[in-house]
Amino acid sequence: MNTLSGRFLILTAIFVMLAEVLIFVPSVARFRADFLESRLERAQIASLALLAADEISDDLQEELLLNAGVFNVVLRRDEARQLVLSSPIPTPISATYDLRDPSALVLIRDAMARLADPGPRVIRVIGAPSRMAGLLIEITMDTGELRAAMIDYGLRILMLSAVISGVTAVLLFLAARLFIVRPIKRVIDSMKSYALAPEDARGFIEPNASVRELREAEETLQLLQTELTGALRQKERLAQLGGAVAKVSHDLRNILTSAQLFTDRLGQSEDPAVKRMAPKLVNSITRAVHLCESTLAYGKAEEPAPVLGRFLLWDILGDVIESERLSVDDADISFAEDVPAGLSIRADREQLYRVLANLVRNARQAIIASGKTGEIAVSAEETEDAWIIRVADTGPGLPPKAREHLFQPFQGRASKGGAGLGLTISAELVRGHGGELTLEETGPDGTTFVITLPKGDIG
């Protein structure tokens, strides 16, 4: 009986029996009252027969009392109290009961007291004569037959209650199995089947329960299975991509290392333009080599912890802006910087460069894709608790899908053809600093991202 349906069966039987007990008590009390009323009626008929005959023999009187089931009858008519029929009383009268206007509680109390008292007693019963045949009728009688009749009636009530409770419990048991247990078992079976092969969409449950709560459970399970399978597939794709990127990054690092050797030679050139551009080219290749090394580390575990140091924000922002200006070509895009010249922050230099480069590059690509002129503005400020950097553009704003899955890989892509990894990587790098990358606003007038780097204990 450890099953839900088994316990439901037991509880149903118990509750039905409790209900029958609550019915049993007043039923037995009503039966006792009817029994006494019938004795009063029989005694009244016997007394009227005696009054009609004026005089009867002692044998006939005894027979009338025997048929009425009483010892004597007192009838009050016209304010005169008259002993109509009488016979010897075996024992003194133990109690008197008035049935003319009793309350329900009194009837129940007297009935339970009679059932609890096994000994024969002589009682007096007072009632109103039927059909206005007097003012009052009073009888004395033995309680033995009354108690036996009450016990017999009670047993029949209990047996009927047991049958009713059994039938009701079985019907409710079958109904519970059909409408509750079976749908729940179906949900459990679906969960077990899905656990064995979560990538198989055929294991998804199809909601069909007629009970609203069970149907909601099935719909919730179906949604959970769909989302979990999608997450597992995405995780698998990420793992495959990570392996592929790690291989590419390994070979690319070797190529960039060779390119780095060639750029060292360029620094020896006497051409002024080459001398001016060579350091930036060297810095770009150096950053690319570091990025490849970081990608290899990410493929093994996760983004490496930042190496914090103090530096001027403008040092890396200038490289980011200069690099993006070279990528603009003929597009009409302007750049604005509002960064205090002496603003010094504490962060990982290369990781913050990657964050700013991703944000500015996304802004540039969004403006170019719109086919209109635009501006990219980078501003920074220092508060008592943090450094705050804003990257704003006048592009067309992020599409709804990008806003919904902003920092999720492969889903939060802001431009056509993008992988949606730039913002994901940037957000992770900023979180590594204990900070936060948030979307402040986006719309037809442009988009603004905010980088918040907490100062903490900077010493």
Please tell me the total number of domains: 3
Q: Give me the Rg, rounded.
A: 49 Å
Q: Strand fraction band?
A: 15-25%
Major sheet attributes:
5 strands, mixed
Structural class: alpha+beta
What gross morphology would you assign? rod-shaped
The span between the termini is: 68 Å
Helix content: 55-70%
The H/E string reads: HHEEEHEEHHHEHEEHEEHHEE
Number of helices: 10
Number of strands: 12
Strand order of the largest sheet: 2-1-5-4-3
Could you tell me the mean pLDDT?
78
The parts where pLDDT drops under 50 for at least 5 residues are none
Describe the protein.
By secondary structure, the protein is α+β, with helices and mostly antiparallel strands. It folds into three domains: 4-169, no CATH class; 201-243, no CATH class; 304-454, Histidine kinase-like ATPase, C-terminal domain (Heat Shock Protein 90, 2-Layer Sandwich), CATH 3.30.565. 58% of the residues lie in helices and 17% in strands. It is rod-shaped and about 160 Å long. The protein starts with a helix and ends in a 5-residue tail after the last strand. The mean pLDDT is 78. InterPro entries: HATPase_C_sf (IPR036890), HATPase_dom (IPR003594), His_kinase_dom (IPR005467), HisK_dim/P_dom (IPR003661), HisK_dim/P_sf (IPR036097), Sig_transdc_His_kin-like_C (IPR004358). It catalyses: ATP + protein L-histidine = ADP + protein N-phospho-L-histidine. Residues 247-457 form the Histidine kinase domain.
SSE map:
Blueprint: H1 4-53, H2 58-68, E1 72-77, E2 80-85, E3 93-98, H3 104-116, E4 122-127, E5 136-142, H4 144-196, H5 212-266, H6 272-300, E6 309-312, H7 313-328, E7 333-338, E8 344-347, H8 349-370, E9 374-382, E10 386-393, H9 400-404, H10 422-432, E11 436-443, E12 446-454
Parallel strand pairs: 3-4, 7-9
Antiparallel strand pairs: 1-2, 1-5, 4-5, 6-8, 9-10, 10-12, 11-12
Helix pairs in contact: 1-2, 1-3, 1-4, 4-5, 5-6, 7-8, 8-10
